Amino acid sequence: MGKVSRFEDLKCWQEARQLVKYIYQLTISGKLAKDFGLKDQLQRASVSIMTNIAEGFSRYHKKEFIRFLNISQSSASELKSLLYVIDDLEYVESHQVELLQKHCEKTKALILSLLKYVSSQLPTNTVKEPLPQYVTKTTFVLPDDFGAE
Description:
mainly alpha, elongated, single chain, 5 helices
């Protein structure tokens, strides 16, 4: 088990970051660059995956982390669905869409795996802890397969 004290160390966040890069590269040229609504939605969905992992990690309670991980994995599904639109409209080649959809699936699987692990760490009989006035650092002890190598 290793301590993960930065969201940047999470594999699911790293994969989501790569996905954002790919989506932005895809949307800067061709027909897709001119379809402002779809381009914006693709970019927002991809960024949502990454930022919700980070935001949830920075929350004080595990239940909040779980909530944000759930939003993040939902955004991965949204992005995968939007990729069907660009395939149907033939904005990019089908093989590119398939690769991106597989990346969405991989990212979502990593998020769901982390979500399942964090959920399993919740006590069944929870006692509410007082929220500290200022929380300066969040650290999670996670199995090594969730953090960067």
